[in-house]
Amino acid sequence: MTDINIVRPNVLASMGASVAPVHVSIHAPALFQLLEFSLRSNERVLGTLVGTRSDDGSELEVRDAFIVPHHEEGDELVIEEGHNRTLYQLHKRSHPRDSILGWFATTEGIDSFTALVHDFYSRGPDSTFPHPALHLTLSAVGEQLTAMPQINTYIGAPLGAQGITAAQLKLDKGASYIFTPVANDARFDTQERTVLEQASLAVRSEEPVQLEKSSVDLNAAIASINKVDSLIDSTVAYIEKIETGEIKGDDKLARLLLANLDTNVKKLDPDHLEKVLSAHVQDTLMVEYLASAVKTQLELSAKLTTLV
């Protein structure tokens, strides 16, 4: 009796690529778009994910998303290909480096229509070929927003015979796919995080919150410093508990701290640190003063020119 060992294929191998496990980063604009789509209706919403892909294909950055109309009738599903092509071409005008990464659906999992839609995004001129398409699912929560939608990402790789081989074997040319879950996270830059924090404060406040730009920047800096200070205190307390034997250490966390902390930092005494900060503040004020003087001179020159 002969044993046959079946190994799950590399999700990228069938597309002619062999890379490390895929990781998906969802930028804030795309994340907000997806959340809005999930709030619109309890019915299925389909759309295209656009963004950038690393050279080796292991890092996907979803930067934007748009809805593509579709019609479901019985076992048939029709996608408006022309609408998808038009919106993608408009997006390319302002973001020439972006490409189609895959598609999303406001469903909680994979169903009978998933392979059909995935096949559409895996082939043709406006597809992810030769890379495998990304599939993102999020649950539709409706206008009530009783819970945050769960976001899952998958890479779908085709299985079985395709193209000429499928035709020779008289098989359906539509491919079957294996969907492998891949990790994902949300990515925010400093400005977006500041806006979200201020919006969160406004939601929790009983009175309207109105802040000037300088006040917002100062509050954001103070909040960031306090957060870093709190994280340092928590880390020190955690390390002390490990040293006393209260808890068992985590090797992953230890490696993370070792990789991100500079062990060769020179110890600065408070007086020297105060001098460095004071010099930096003075340099900043001088730059602001010079910029203001130049701006005033330009405005005065423009007014004198109009008088002459």
Task: Characterise the protein shown here.
The chain is α/β, with parallel strands linked by helices. The chain folds into 3 domains: 23-187, Cytidine Deaminase, domain 2, CATH 3.40.140; 226-267, no CATH class; 269-307. 44% of the residues lie in helices and 21% in strands. It is built from 8 helices and 9 strands. It has a 7-stranded mixed barrel with strand order 1-3-2-6-7-8-9. Strands 4-5 form a two-stranded antiparallel ribbon. The longest helix is centred in the C-terminal third of the chain and has 38 residues, at 270-307. The radius of gyration is 27 Å and the shape is extended. The relative contact order is 0.10. The model is unreliable at 1-20 and 166-171 (pLDDT under 50).
Write the layout of secondary structure elements.
Elements: E1 23-27, H1 28-40, E2 46-53, E3 59-67, E4 70-73, E5 76-79, H2 81-94, E6 99-105, H3 114-122, E7 133-138, E8 151-159, H4 163-168, E9 176-187, H5 190-204, H6 213-244, H7 251-260, H8 270-307
Parallel strand pairs: 1-3, 1-9, 6-7
Antiparallel strand pairs: 2-3, 2-6, 4-5, 7-8, 8-9
